[in-house]
Q: What sequence folds into this?
């Protein structure tokens, strides 16, 4: 577990288009028995998350699936700042993002996917805690 946490501390975010069909195919061909599958990806609430939700929920029927995502620390601040007209529009946009992300989290959870979110530096420890919780609950 320590080794996993150490490797995750060096993870740097990068915007890439993920092929969720390929992810599912790789997991299914690589793993021959039930396993813990950890996906580290952004959780942004966009319409593109529908494919992610379907794919991870399908994998969760065969494996224990955890989606780990770093929180955007500025989103909550943007949501609460309403000093002028421009900041009100920004706050409304941030609020919309937060509502959409909540809906995605709920759909993932309903599909059997564990969602771990934490600030960037806290993601590795939060993921380790999730692993320990799953282990204690007998889900691994």
A:
């Amino acid at each position: 577990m320590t080794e996993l946490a150490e490797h995750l501390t060096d993870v740097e975010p990068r915007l890439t288009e993920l092929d969720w069909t390929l992810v599912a195919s790789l997991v299914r061909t690589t793993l021959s028995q039930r396993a813990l599958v950890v996906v580290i990806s952004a959780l942004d609430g966009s319409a593109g998350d529908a494919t992610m939700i379907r794919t991870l929920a399908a994998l969760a029927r065969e494996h224990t699936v955890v989606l780990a995502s770093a929180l955007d620390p500025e989103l909550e601040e943007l949501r609460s700042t309403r000093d002028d007209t421009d900041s009100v529009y920004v706050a409304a946009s941030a609020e919309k993002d937060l509502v959409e992300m909540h809906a995605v989290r709920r759909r993932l959870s309903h599909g059997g996917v564990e969602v771990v979110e934490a600030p960037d530096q806290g993601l590795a420890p939060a993921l380790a805690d999730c692993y320990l919780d799953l282990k204690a609950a007998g889900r691994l």
Q: What stands out?
A: The radius of gyration is 16 Å. The mean pLDDT is 88.
